[in-house]
Amino acid sequence: MMPHPIVRFAPSPTGYIHIGNARTALLNFLYAKKHHGEFILRFDDTDVERSKEEFAQAIEVDLAWLGIAPHAVFRQSERIALYHAAAEALRGAGRLYPCYETAEELDRKRKRQQARGLPPVYDRSSLDLSAAERAKLETEGRRPHWRFKLDQKIAHWSDLVRGESHIDCASLSDPVLLREDGTYLYTLPSVVDDLDRRVNLIIRGEDHVTNTAVQIQLFEALIAAGSGSGAVPGFAHHNLLSSASGEGLSKRTGSLSIGGLREQGIESLAVAAAAVLIGSSVALHPVASLDELAASLDLSQISRTQTRFDPVELAGLSARTLHGLSFEAVRDRLAAHDIAGYKAKAFWLAVRGNISTFLDVVDWWRIVEGEIPPVAEDAEFLAKACDILPEEPWDETAWTVWTNVLKDRTGRKGRALYHPLRLALTGRETGPELAALLPLIGKVKASARLSGRVA
Ligand code: GLU
C-alpha cells in the first residue's frame, strides 16, 4: 500500500520562482493533497553568497498566491549541525575522502581525458594519497574538498513518471559534497533532510536524474552508517518547460516569474492548471479549484519530452478560468474593490464572461454604479428610447420588452437599433449582454444617459 506521502519543494532562494519552479511545487503540493499527505517547503540556502532572505520571502508569497499552504517550512542554513554529523558518519564508513586538486588541475585532467576520447570522470587520485602526502599538501596551505566515494554499480529506481530507470554510477565522478571552505553543496544536505523529515517521494525536474543515482547511494550509505533511520524515498522526474522560443526557463526570465504573471493579472488558478496540464497528455482546460486539479492529477500522464510554455496560451486560459468562476469564489476579491451589496452577485454573473483579467471588473462596476460621460450617437432616437423605458422593477426581460417596442416604433433593427443604446448606456462599443446590465444600471441612470446627461 502507498504510504501516506511526505513530499517537499526545495527551492534555492537565489531568485524569484518562475512557472517551471511553480510546476514542481504544484505537482508536489497537489500530490500530497490528493493522497492526504504532507507538503514541506525547504529552502536550500547553504550557498550563503547567493541565497537571500528577500527571495525566500518572495517565494512564500508566490506559493501562497498559488494556493499552496505548506505543512512545514525550514531552512537548511539552520541545520548545519545535522550535515556535519552525516559527513562524519560517511568519513567513518570510508565513503568521504579529501581531495586536493585545484579547479585548474581538475580542468587540465578533464581536457586530457577528452583528448584521449575518455569520459571526463574524476580519476580518484586523491584517494591514493598517503597520510604523509596529505600532510605535506596541507602544510603547503592546501585545504581539501571532500568527495563521496560512489560504489561502481547501477542505481535502479521505479520512477513515477519515467517508469523503470537506471544509471550506471561507474560513469559518474565521485561528487563533491563539501567545498574547501567547509560549506556544503546541495547533494548531501538534501539527502540528510529528506531522511530526517521522512520524505518518501521526491518529485522534481528531470535535470535531477543524475543526482538521483548519486543520492540513492547516499541514502543507502547514511542508513547503513546509522546516520538516519528512514528508507530510500520514491522518485518522480517531470519533464522541463522551455520558453515559447525554445530556451530553458531561468530565474532571470522576469516575465515568466510568478510575481510577473500575477502583476499581469493572470489568475493563479490558470497558472496552476497550466503548470500541471502543460506537458501532460491532458489538454489544457480551465479548472474551478485546486481540489479539482488535485483529483485529476496523474504523474504517469506527464510527457517525457520538453514542452514549450506559451504565455499567450496562459492568458487565454486565465480569461476562460474567470468566465467559469462562481460568485462565491470571487466574493472576497470583489469586496476588496468595494464591489459588494445586493447587486454584487448579479453583476459578477453579468460581466464575468466578458473580462480578460479580474481588474476589468472595476471599470464595469463604475459603468453600473458610477458616472460615465455621455456618448450620444443619435439624440433623437435615444430620446424616443428614453420615453418608452418600461417601469421598474426590471429583470432580464426588461431589455427585450423595451427594444421590441422600440423596434416597432422606429422600424430599426440589428446594429442600428442596438449600437446607439449600448453606447449611450455603457459608453462602450462592446461588453456584456445588455439584458443583464440594464437592471443593474437601473431606470434613473438609464434615462439620464439616454438624454445625454452625465450619470
Ligand atoms: N534546491 C534544488 C533545486 O532547486 C532542489 C532539488 C531537489 O528537489 O532535490 O534544484
TrEMBL record:
EC number(s) per entry: 6.1.1.17
Motif ('KMSKS' region): 248-252
Annotated positions binding ATP: K251
Entry GO MF terms: glutamate-tRNA ligase activity
Membrane spanning stretches: none
Catalytic reactions on record: tRNA(Glu) + L-glutamate + ATP = L-glutamyl-tRNA(Glu) + AMP + diphosphate
Keywords: Aminoacyl-tRNA synthetase, ATP-binding, Cytoplasm, Ligase, Nucleotide-binding, Protein biosynthesis
Subcellular compartments: Cytoplasm
Domain Glutamyl/glutaminyl-tRNA synthetase class Ib catalytic as annotated: residue spans: 7-310
Domain Aminoacyl-tRNA synthetase class I anticodon-binding, first and last residues per copy: 377-451
Pfam families xref list: Anticodon_2 (PF19269), tRNA-synt_1c (PF00749)
Motif stretch ('HIGH' region): 11-21
InterPro entries: aa-tRNA-synth_I_cd-bd, aa-tRNA-synth_I_codon-bd_sub2, aa-tRNA-synth_I_CS, aa_tRNA-synth_I_cd-bd_sf, Glu-tRNA-ligase_bac/mito, Glu/Gln-tRNA-synth, Glu/Gln-tRNA-synth_Ib_cat-dom, GluQ/Sye
Role: Catalyzes the attachment of glutamate to tRNA(Glu) in a two-step reaction: glutamate is first activated by ATP to form Glu-AMP and then transferred to the acceptor end of tRNA(Glu).
Protein family per UniProt: Belongs to the class-I aminoacyl-tRNA synthetase family. Glutamate--tRNA ligase type 1 subfamily.
Subunit structure: Monomer.
Listed name of the protein: Glutamate--tRNA ligase
Record gene name: gltX
